[in-house]
Amino acid sequence: MPSASTWRLRPVEDDAAVDALARSLNDLPHALARALVLRDIRSFDAAQRFFRPALAHLHAPDGLRDMDAAAERIARAVRSGERVLVFGDYDVDGTTATALTVGMLRRLGVETGYFIPNRFLDGYGIGEKGLDAAKAMGATVVVALDCGITAHEPARYAKTLGLDLVVCDHHKPEATLPDAYAVVDPKRADCLYPFKELSGCALGFKLAQAVLERLGHDPAEAYDDLDLVAISTAADLVSPSDENRVLMAKGLERLRTSPRPGFAALAKVVGLDLGALSTEGIVFALGPRINAAGRLGDAGKAVELMLAETDAEAMERALALEACNQQRRALDQEIQGEALALAEAQMARGGADGGERQALALYGRDWHLGVIGIVASRMVERFHRPTVMMCGTGDGFVKGSARSCRGVSIHDALGRCHDLLEDFGGHDFAAGLTLREENVAAFQDCFDAAVGEAARKAETTWAAPLDFDAQIALDDLASGRFWAVLRQFAPHGPDNLAPVFATMGVDVVGNPRVVGRESQHLKLHVRAAGGPGRVFEAIGYRMGDRLAEVQALVRLGHRLDLAFQVEENVYRGERSLQLKLKDLRAAA
Fold this sequence. Notes:
The structure is a single chain. Among the domains are: 59-227, Alpha-Beta Complex (inorganic pyrophosphatase (n-terminal core)), CATH 3.90.1640; 350-457, Diaminopimelate Epimerase, Chain A, domain 1 (Roll), CATH 3.10.310.30; 466-586, CATH 2.40.50.460. It contains 19 helices and 18 strands. The relative contact order is 0.09. The longest helix has 39 residues, at 311-349. 41% of the residues lie in helices and 19% in strands. It is an alpha/beta fold.
């Protein structure tokens, strides 16, 4: 990982606002006050709401268009003893949403089944196979979660089977909605709900609250499932702002203090301390294992883990998921190597207009459909370009998984290539698509041009300098209050990344080294120049290739400038602050 070309202090419009906020918060350290202002938090009340997310801040479910019809229909099914089928998606958001809704209905005494399509046999979204399964089990209501907003033909087919279809989706709708019994989607044009970025599982939570209320139950009963909502929100890359911040915070609290058997077992298998769980723990540990089942074909394994009622069945299902994850990782590493070579060649070749390549669209006919999304994310990390990974389906068609960077909506970019696509859907940061194999080359050029145009409009620069929130003296981190406040910036996500700080001219203590078996991480110890201040451990994930550079600087007597985030490291029960390096360089 090479050094960023330049480091840049993120500008604030009014330095006086930082000083005023620091004073109002009992002389909060300037660096933290600055980070708050950069997040548009400028008053005591705004800071209190940010640091103390409360369930009272949640919006009423009935503010969602069609929620009344959806909740009334499901409540009627509960009262009359009808059977219900829950139709979900095979990713983390879809499986958590399925588990939440199935669990809620079964607790209400409803005979409830679920259907999650096999990504290889059934493809994405509502299909006839799942609707036929609903009819076969005698269901009269189908609840679709995290899918269905473009399911026009399936909605018509459901009517021919006598099924009432309730759609709860968070993806962008088309101009016309499917003709379903109810369509709940905060992004539909006629929905006045004040927050648009709920996950599919969060919509399931809202539906559960509305159903419980109509049945005379306390809607707060749904809070027991906020662990599922937190995992979906973190894993699906939706904004952690507004009520998502509340759902994440309260869901993480439940995961830390009273996890359901499935998550307790999975954490034990992984070696994860749920008591110190963060958003990153979901994204890098729990999420990939929940996803692994669907990536390899049977997402029902993840749903069954979440619905497990005993420790014994939870552990059995957690071990099965870990086996899927190990298989997924092997495929991931193989495909990543091939994709890297293609990406470097594509970057060297440049764009269709002869200029710099703006996006990557990589195709491997035999790549595994279940892991191309993960590899797309890795390509984004490495090349800082929106990326589509595509593989063949064996029938003349190609499926793809897309991931984006800040500043470019991947969904909108795909929309500009719609003439070359059979189907696409998703949101700003992640999407899926289908096209004919003969259109791959044309799509690669079209996608590059579409991303380039979007980047120019947004004034996005791929080789942007490293931006940091504030400069800080290393010894200031030793203040207990600093970490006590900084940890409350979490939960983090696309619109609230962990603050990045810079400290200048530190001494390296001892010998830097590389750690990690599969991923090479740079580890060193540093303290303020001249000592004898506190020594901090610094870790540069996947920065092992810079060890020789650091060793040479130290040998020549140079001090270092560091750009980093602060995290808490837990090792054998001991907690300590650790600097998570974003970049380093020789001090001036």
